[in-house]
């Protein structure tokens, strides 16, 4: 496929700039639309090549369309990322210093937890150790609600996890700041927070729950793909794509 940037590429990029992040099915629909409206060749299996052409032109501007996976559903997403600001400071235009400090503390709690989440109680308690202007309990909860609304965190029954957007956009920062703690999924090789862990103390590989579901589907006796010990965890069911699950 040609590496020349055309009108179809530019229209796709404009859509990414307007939305920030789209799921894989949405990206495929936009790709097809952009090709059809500008009368260029549409190869359904060449979306990543199409995006790579755009990325080759974005490099001088330190921008990149990066692909990542939802740890909860296993769905793939594409996000437009500013490569010049790969850490929490890119949020400084939207959040005050003390709000950013609490976000960092929340990030610490999530990264160092075994299950890749942090309870609202632990986050509220961490606010008491802030070095910047302390937040009241009500202010902390309001900030957490805002971080969920802005799609940096997910929340379910009082437990907070990193959103897909956060993981995709801040992966370089997370890998640098937590290099001794963060591991990658043995199957998809993306960084893993919400996952299952091999209980063999000499192994300890991590596998995302959706990757576990796909990898062990149909296997009578699940064994660790690295050390071949019996995999003792419950094997989740493979989730159908959202477009099918609505039917």
UniProtKB/TrEMBL annotation:
An individual GO BP term: double-strand break repair via homologous recombination
Presence of the UniProt keyword Lipoprotein in the record: no
This enzyme's EC code(s): 2.3.2.27
Stretches assigned to the RING-type domain: 185-228
Keywords: Chromosome, DNA damage, DNA recombination, DNA repair, Metal-binding, Nucleus, Telomere, Transferase, Ubl conjugation pathway, Zinc, Zinc-finger
Main localization of the protein described in the UniProt heading: nucleus
Reaction it catalyzes: S-ubiquitinyl-[E2 ubiquitin-conjugating enzyme]-L-cysteine + [acceptor protein]-L-lysine = [E2 ubiquitin-conjugating enzyme]-L-cysteine + N(6)-ubiquitinyl-[acceptor protein]-L-lysine
Transferase listed as a keyword: yes
Source organism, top-level taxon: Eukaryota
Localisation: Chromosome, Telomere; Nucleus
One Gene Ontology molecular-function label: ubiquitin protein ligase activity
GO CC terms in record: chromosome, telomeric region; nucleus; Smc5-Smc6 complex
Family, similarity comment: Belongs to the NSE1 family.
Assembly description: Component of the Smc5-Smc6 complex.
Role according to the record: RING-type zinc finger-containing E3 ubiquitin ligase that assembles with melanoma antigen protein (MAGE) to catalyze the direct transfer of ubiquitin from E2 ubiquitin-conjugating enzyme to a specific substrate. Involved in maintenance of genome integrity, DNA damage response and DNA repair.
Annotated protein name in UniProt: Non-structural maintenance of chromosomes element 1 homolog
The organism of origin for this protein: Eleginops maclovinus
């Amino acid at each position: 496929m040609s590496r020349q940037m055309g009108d179809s590429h530019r229209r796709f990029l404009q859509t990414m700039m307007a939305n920030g992040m789209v799921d894989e099915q949405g990206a495929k629909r936009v790709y097809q639309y952009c090709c059809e409206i500008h009368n260029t060749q549409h190869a359904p299996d060449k979306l990543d090549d199409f995006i790579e052409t755009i990325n080759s032109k974005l490099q001088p501007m330190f921008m990149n369309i990066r692909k990542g996976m939802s740890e909860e559903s296993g769905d793939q997403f594409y996000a437009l990322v500013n490569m010049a600001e790969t850490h929490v400071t890119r949020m400084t235009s939207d959040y005050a210093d003390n709000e950013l400090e609490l976000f960092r503390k929340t990030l610490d709690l999530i990264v160092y937890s075994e299950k890749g989440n942090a309870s609202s109680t632990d986050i509220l308690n961490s606010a008491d150790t802030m070095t910047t202007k302390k937040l009241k309990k009500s202010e902390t909860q309001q900030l957490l609600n805002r971080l969920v609304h802005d799609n940096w965190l997910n929340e379910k029954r009082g437990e907070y996890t990193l959103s897909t957007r956060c993981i995709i956009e801040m992966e370089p920062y997370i890998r640098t700041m937590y290099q001794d703690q963060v591991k990658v999924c043995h199957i998809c090789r993306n960084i893993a927070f919400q996952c299952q862990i091999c209980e063999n103390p000499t192994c300890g590989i991590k596998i995302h729950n959706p990757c576990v579901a796909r990898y062990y589907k149909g296997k009578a006796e699940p064994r660790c793909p690295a050390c071949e010990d019996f995999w003792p965890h419950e094997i989740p069911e493979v989730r159908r794509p959202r477009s099918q699950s609505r039917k």
